[in-house]
Amino acid sequence: MLKKLIYFLVFLVQFSGIGLAIVLENLSSKKMGVARYLIYRKQEFEATLFTPANVHLLMYLLILGTIVCLALLLIKKGGGVVLFAALVNIIGIIFIQFEKELQAFHFFILGILIVLVIQYVWMIYFYLRKPEVK
Question: What pTM did the predictor assign?
């Protein structure tokens, strides 16, 4: 029971960031205050976190993460955790390359990064734990 609760909480934390970004993107065309906030945050993010050099670094890290996840999938047969992390990496790469015109672009990227960090921690736990003895 506790294990299912932990899985649910991890799932909830992972997709809450992306869900909030979807809501912000949807409201940006309907509410002027949200649109102004997103324009302001876009300028702030581009000046601090998402400079062109940081975006290129993030792109290379996502490519490296995809390669590592696919190698783990082929070598150790990691299962759904590794496959999901590889898919999120690929979605992040595609998103950075093609979706820069979205108002909530930076929030989507932050949501993807939160999902990836949780997945990487989950993969490390998955590979370092000792097998259960039955």
Answer: 0.81
Give backbone dihedrals phi and psi of 45, rounded to 5 degrees, phi first: -65, -40
Q: What angle do CA 49, 62, 12 make, to 5 degrees?
A: 80
Length of the chain equals 134
Tell me phi and psi for residue 65, to 5 degrees.
-60, -40
pLDDT tens per residue across span 98-111 = 777 788 888 888 88
Q: Which residues contact 107 (CB under 8 A, 6 or more apart)?
A: 17, 20, 21, 24, 25, 41
Q: Give dist(CA 106, CA 96) in Å, integer.
A: 9
Task: With residue 110 as reference, give the H or E element that holds it.
Answer: helix 105-128
- 56-76 confidence digits (pLDDT tens): 898 898 889 888 888 878 887
Angle between helices 2-28 and 32-47 (to 10 degrees): 110
Half-sphere exposure of 37 (CA within 13 A, CB side): 13
Residue 85 has pLDDT above 80, yes or no: yes
